[in-house]
Amino acid sequence: MTTTLYESSDDALNQIGDDVRLIVGSPQVETVYTIPEIEPKSDLQGISETIYAQIRAALRSGKRHIIFYGPPGTGKTTLAQYIAQELSSTATYEMLTASSSWTSQELIGGYQPIGDGKIGFVPGAILRNFDRPIVIDELNRCPIDKVIGPLFSVLSGQASTLPYKLDIQRDDSPFHVIYPGSKEEPEAHEWCPGQEWRLIATLNTVDKSQLGQISYALSRRFAWIKIGVPENLDQFTKSILNREDAGTVPNPIADMWAAVNKVRQIGGAPIIDIIRTLNEMKPGIDLLTVPNEEMQDLLLAALGMYILPLLDGIRRFEAETFITEISHNWSLGAARRQALEVEMADIVA
Amino acid sequence: MAGNTLDVYRAVKRKIENEFRVRELTVKTAGFKQDGLAETLSNSTGFWEEPQRVTSKPPRWIIQFEKNDEEVTANFAKKQDGALFPSAKTIGYINNREGNCSAMMFRIIAAIKTGEEQYEFPEWEWVMFLIFPRPLPSGNSSETIANFDPNDQSILYQRRTFKFSLLGIVKTDVENDSILLSNGEAITYLEASEALKKLLENGTEVENL
Predict the structure, then answer these.
(1) Buried b (16+ CB within 10 A) or exposed e, B186-197
(2) Taking a C-beta distance cutoff of 8 angstroms, is the pair A83, A55 a contact?
(3) If both were cysteines, with which of A348, B104, B108, B177 could B126 make a disulfide (CB 3.0 to 4.6 Å apart)?
């Protein structure tokens, strides 16, 4: 068995597991869950090694739950999914997208009709997936304390009794209880998280409408890791263009991105969209040059498609500053500057 | 190099980690952070354009393949005069600060000899892993894994020889699975995979050098 050639099929992967087990031995009866090494995700650009170091440190120091927060388009959701997958021994996790209409019923559970005219306790998404990581995307969109409130005690290491009976018809029926850790032979009304259960949430800091609802008590149950915009916009843009070696050349997209960030920070995703769209509009376009009139029109079109919607609600003086900067960076003439002013008038608060 | 190497890598790593977790062992890897190569490959030597730049941290292990008399052979990278490149048997590097590394994973790429002093680097890759019976001693942030010895089934780490218990070569999906040689013959990924196994299993070509 010393040297073995494997296919990359599921059967072969299982064989690898069997072969490795033969060498390291059968698992011990008392298993110890260890945090796997989190390596940078190769196809997720703009996430620095510092962020991965923070994730590793948080996990190793015992933090179970993480919130990735930051401006839109920075890769928070992709990163959360990646981390969830890496932390799951079966690569499975539950993906939830938060909604303003959520109540604790969706996440924790509650009484619902169960057929034949009866009602009973139906577990919510968290209890149904208590054995694996759960990603909650856009956590800011739901009333956070209200929805996750019943988990406060559990997140603090205490059991929490829910106001729902196992059998609503019986007076002596036990109430459902959520435990913070494993329990030997749990009964039907007892819910115990598996070792791999954890909450990994993303939180968009532009949409602040719900952020005030996160209490201090809940905040400190999570490791908060900021996913900001890339440090070097010029380098990031060139890497997307596969022109890292371009040296010091005009970079109108990075210039625009810097101007946008002064008003409202955005991540790399819309910038990647802009580059891809411009390449579709004009295949072979050189985006590292001073824009001529044709390129100015293409840039303005892409700006309207991907950036201006993200600036909705900015103040008039911010819009004016932005227009002045873009006009200067892209060498816009009076007519194009005026067209941009008209377009931005719609998004000014 | 494209293909699904990173997907295969993640799946294999997860399988090994599943077996390792209960024993608090870890898998160390190199070369999987990105698909692109910063270092240039040489089509005339079938090795790195500047071998001295990758000696301590080779991002890939380059194996040369050729076909003679309808038989495909895999070789550790050698120069035109038949001598091995100095780092031909350096398979990668690891960071084992914690001292709990019992497995390592690297990427193997193919240099196909298509003619005299003429090599092609197709998008062929294999994910290679080594499993050790005990964790390797802790080391520095980046230590090379050198002197791969197929006959002894061992590698050199921290100037000491360590025997491995399992060497796995995992195939990946390749788009073009056949490379045409200048003499009209062709080498397929399947043939190369078998030749690679033969080389890493018993080092036939090493003995012949």
Answers:
(1) ebbbebbbebbb
(2) yes
(3) B108
Among A148, A150, A136, A155, which residue's Cα sits nearest to residue A69? Answer: A136
| Residue B105, H or E segment | strand B101-115
Report which secondary-structure segment, H or E, holds B148: strand B143-149
* CA distances to A24, A87, A294 from A65, in Å: 31, 12, 49
Q: Look at residue B183 and tell me whether its pLDDT is greater than 50.
A: yes
Share of chain A residues as helix, strand and coil, in percent rounded to the nearest 5: 45, 15, 40
Which pLDDT band holds residue A207 (cuts at 50, 70, 90)? Answer: low
Q: What is the CA radius of gyration of chain B?
A: 17
- Whether the complex's predicted ipTM is more than 0.85 is answered with yes
In the stretch 81-110 of chain B, residues with CB closer than 8 A to chain A read 102-103
Burial of B3 (0-12, 13-18, 19+ CB in 10 A): middle
CB-CB under 8 Å, A28 with B197:
no
Condensed to tens digits (0 to 9), the pLDDT of residues A240-274 reads: 898 887 888 999 999 999 999 999 999 999 999 99
* Residues A276-329: tens digit of each pLDDT: 999 999 999 999 999 999 999 999 999 999 999 999 999 999 999 999 999 999
Residues of B in contact with A27 (CB under 8 A): 19, 22
Residues A338, B143: Cα–Cα separation, whole Å: 60
Question: Which CA distances in Å does A175 have to A124, A152, A184, B111?
Answer: 16, 18, 18, 66
Output the six-digit token pair for A274.
């802009």
Backbone CA torsion sign across A85, A87, A90, A94: negative
Q: CA-to-CA distance for A280 and A274, rounded, in angstroms?
A: 10
Q: How would you classify residue B163: left for phi > 0, otherwise alpha for psi between -120 and 50, otherwise beta?
A: beta
Work out the minimum CA distance from B35 to partner chain A, whole angstroms: 7
Residue A8: helix, strand or coil by DSSP?
coil
Please report residues of A whose CB lies closer than 8 A to that of B173. 8
